[in-house]
């Protein structure tokens, strides 16, 4: 044999998939670099032509926080917890909220905006909404630095609870991804979804404790129902980790459970729809 | 030793016509449709579903061996592109299956995923990743890619500032360095200037030489003939022929005729924007008036084009292109070429017409030729064009120089006057 030893060739069988197909996450893993590249592209393009560039990541939540503090904190006198100054109280919540809202917006419309890729090249379609998740992280970390500045300014202590932040951050991202999977797949067929997303985000904002404290919800039962919104758990977690407010309780378990259900069903729904993406997008 | 690397079995792909035409379904449409469907069901008349479906591929079977370069030819809408899309896994088949050994790289459309704001360098990495290359692999081939694309001076400039030629060269360079075991190519050779096209062809040739398998789709018959030894012909979603390339090309060029020497256009073959022009029949007749497929070079023949005008057309000219089997043009002629005809027919009223042209004796060399039809108003509108309306063979019996049974190069074989003089 003169032939050189070749790496084992992959054998691919292409056939119509039946019913609820397997997720095929191994395939996704081989394309992990593509996820990184697409995320990197989104970040790069985002700041490339904006005159203020990265400053937007600071200005956006900062202005929102100022408006909230003046209107809600000062004029309406919305109560916080443990006498925490309203600006910090709302800014802490704005961080995960904006991470969630931006990610949901991007991943929800991601497939349609990548239509040119979908119709021409094969890659696991899950790459697209997943890559949309990463791009919001840069903004998030920049805002986090601003938050630490605010905490120092108001003389608030840093505690070891902070080590829990990544967990809550991940929970916010997974929630956005899970909902984004549903919305992006639906958006391929029904462009109505694109119109609905801002409305969904707005309504979600009010049922999440961003500008008020979750402690205003009366009664144990109501609070558990309230926790069906995973973002309620995430925001309470952020407040607890940074401002040492009421620790998250059973409601966090409910939130996590909801996220897992949303994610798994979202993945399967996405896979189910995936086979027709290229034909109808 | 031959080894099958692509095996296509009973492949079918069905599209809903609705999905092809109305691309943006809305919930409202769905609700309306659902309501209508329900109403019809209640009234007991179910709409047959088949009416809304079209099979872009049907019962396609073929195998490709390692290292083979297979041409795929067919008219627009014959299913070639769908076949490549299914092969490169962009879309799922509806029936049947394909077994593939090795990595498939497709050049379905170069430059997919390029972002205008990013620099050439950044786009090479991004595009490489989209095409399925690993980062290390791209880094290794980076210099080679830049070299091939000839844009090294602008490699850090955003590609939105590139000329379209530079853009395409860079895009093709990335795709060409993918090095998959199986390469699927669709019409990319249409890009760039002649020099770059030659380079692309060279690259394709290299790929084939390295023992990789190539599926090559093109409308350019001379490219198909040059690059492939064997080809498959697609017609209306079905594979109708697999043969050595010259034979397949010949079949393709002469396909679609009702009868030899005649091309009849069905209503569904005429594009809507051809109106008010409607092609009917194109016939080729020999000197005795018979409709034929083979002409004698030494005899005159007649080309007859029958058409109908649904309304008057100002400045209409109807004519044909004559080309060799390899797609090189021999001549072009229009029915109002003569100045007096041009003035007589400035306005052609509605009605049925025949434009008839005599091809003189001693015009063409032996070989296979194609006729394309064109009906247009100069600089105003092209009503109808069919590049492959008809094909025919020319027999050289009786032509000058037949005492030597050698093939003569060149498409024309006129009877030229020679004088032989003995110089003093």
**Biggest sheet, spatial arrangement of strands of chain B:** 5-6-7-3-8-9
- Report how far the terminal alpha carbons of chain B are from each other: 67 Å
Q: The biggest beta sheet of chain B, please?
A: 6 strands, mixed
The coarse overall form of chain A would be globular
User: Oligomerization state of this entry?
Assistant: heterodimer
SSE topology string of chain A: EHHHHHHHHHHHH
Question: What's the alpha carbon Rg of chain A, rounded to whole Å?
Answer: 21 Å
Could you say which structural class the secondary elements and strand pairing of chain B correspond to?
alpha/beta
Question: Helices, strands, pairings?
Answer:
The complex is a heterodimer of chains A (281) and B (424).
Chain A: E1 11-14, H1 25-30, H2 32-48, H3 55-75, H4 86-113, H5 115-118, H6 127-134, H7 136-153, H8 165-189, H9 192-206, H10 220-226, H11 230-243, H12 250-280
Helix pairs in contact in A: 2-6, 3-4, 3-7, 4-6, 4-7, 4-8, 4-9, 4-11, 8-9, 8-11, 8-12, 11-12
Chain B: E1 4-16, H1 17-21, H2 27-42, E2 53-65, E3 69-74, H3 80-87, E4 95-101, E5 104-107, H4 120-130, H5 135-149, H6 164-176, E6 182-186, H7 194-209, E7 213-217, H8 221-227, E8 230-235, E9 238-244, H9 245-254, E10 262-264, E11 277-285, E12 294-296, E13 301-309, E14 313-314, E15 316-324, E16 329-334, H10 339-344, E17 347-348, E18 351-359, E19 367-377, E20 381-395
Parallel strand pairs in B: 3-7, 3-8, 5-6, 6-7, 12-20
Antiparallel strand pairs in B: 1-2, 1-4, 8-9, 10-11, 11-13, 13-18, 14-17, 15-16, 15-19, 19-20
Helix pairs in contact in B: 4-5, 4-6, 5-6
């Amino acid at each position: 044999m003169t032939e050189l030893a070749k790496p084992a060739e992959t054998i691919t069988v292409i056939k119509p998939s039946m019913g609820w197909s397997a997720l095929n996450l191994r395939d996704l893993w081989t394309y992990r670099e593509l996820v990184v590249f697409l995320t990197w592209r989104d970040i790069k393009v985002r700041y490339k032509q904006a005159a203020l560039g990265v400053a937007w990541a600071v200005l956006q939540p900062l202005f929102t926080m100022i408006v909230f503090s003046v209107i809600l904190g000062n004029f309406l006198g919305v109560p916080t917890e443990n006498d925490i100054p309203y600006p910090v109280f709302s800014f802490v919540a704005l961080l995960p909220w904006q991470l969630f809202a931006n990610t949901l917006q991007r991943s929800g419309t991601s497939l349609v905006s990548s239509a040119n890729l979908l119709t021409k090249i094969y890659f696991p379609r899950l790459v697209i909404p997943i890559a949309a998740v990463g791009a919001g992280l840069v903004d998030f970390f920049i805002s986090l630095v601003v938050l630490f500045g605010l905490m120092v300014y108001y003389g608030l202590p840093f505690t070891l609870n902070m080590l829990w932040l990544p967990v809550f951050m991940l929970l916010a991202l997974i929630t956005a991804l899970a909902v984004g999977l549903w919305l992006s797949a639906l958006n391929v067929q029904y462009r109505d979804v694109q119109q609905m997303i801002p409305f969904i985000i707005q309504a979600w904002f009010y049922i999440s404790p961003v500008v008020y404290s979750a402690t205003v919800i009366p009664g144990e039962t109501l609070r558990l129902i309230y926790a069906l919104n995973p973002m309620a758990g995430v925001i309470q977690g952020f407040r607890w980790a940074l401002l040492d407010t009421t620790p998250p309780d059973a409601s966090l378990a409910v939130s996590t459970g909801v996220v897992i259900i949303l994610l798994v069903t979202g993945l399967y729904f996405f896979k189910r729809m995936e086979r027709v993406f290229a034909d109808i997008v | 030793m031959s080894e099958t690397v692509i095996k296509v079995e009973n492949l079918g792909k069905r599209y809903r016509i609705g999905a092809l035409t109305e691309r943006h379904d809305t919930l409202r449409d769905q609700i309306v449709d659902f309501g209508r469907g329900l109403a019809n069901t209640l009234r007991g008349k179910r709409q047959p579903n088949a009416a809304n479906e079209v099979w872009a591929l049907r019962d396609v079977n073929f195998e490709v061996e390692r290292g083979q370069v297979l041409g795929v030819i067919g008219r627009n809408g014959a299913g070639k592109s769908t076949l490549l899309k299914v092969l490169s896994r962009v879309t799922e088949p509806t029936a049947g299956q394909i077994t593939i050994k090795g990595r498939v790289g497709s050049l379905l459309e170069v430059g997919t995923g390029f972002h205008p704001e990013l620099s050439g360098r950044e786009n090479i990495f991004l595009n490489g990743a989209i095409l399925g290359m690993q980062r290390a692999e791209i880094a290794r081939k980076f210099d080679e890619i830049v070299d091939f694309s000839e844009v090294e001076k602008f490699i850090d400039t955003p590609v939105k500032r590139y000329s379209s030629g530079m853009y395409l060269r860079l895009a093709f360079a990335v795709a060409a360095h993918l090095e998959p075991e199986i390469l699927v190519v669709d019409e990319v050779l249409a890009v760039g200037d002649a020099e770059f096209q030659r380079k692309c062809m060279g690259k394709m040739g290299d790929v084939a030489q390295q023992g990789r398998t190539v599926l090559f789709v093109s409308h350019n018959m001379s490219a198909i003939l040059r690059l492939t030894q064997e080809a498959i012909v697609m017609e209306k979603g079905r594979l109708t022929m697999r043969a050595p390339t010259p034979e397949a090309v010949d079949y393709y060029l002469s396909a679609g005729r009702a009868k030899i020497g005649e091309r009849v256009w069905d209503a569904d073959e005429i594009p809507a924007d051809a109106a008010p022009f409607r092609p009917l029949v194109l016939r080729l007749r020999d000197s005795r008036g018979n409709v034929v497929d083979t002409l004698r070079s030494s005899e005159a023949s007649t080309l007859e084009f029958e058409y109908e005008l649904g309304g008057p057309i100002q400045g209409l000219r109807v004519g044909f292109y004559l080309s060799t089997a390899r797609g090189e043009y021999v001549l072009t002629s229009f029915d109002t070429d003569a100045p007096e005809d041009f003035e007589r027919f400035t306005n052609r009223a509605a009605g049925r017409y025949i434009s008839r042209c005599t091809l003189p004796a001693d015009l063409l060399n032996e070989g296979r030729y194609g006729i394309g039809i064109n009906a247009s108003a100069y600089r105003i509108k092209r009503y109808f064009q069919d590049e492959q309306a008809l094909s025919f063979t020319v027999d050289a019996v009786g032509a000058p120089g037949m005492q030597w049974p050698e093939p003569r190069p060149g498409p024309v074989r006129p009877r030229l006057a020679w004088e032989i003089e003995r110089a003093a």
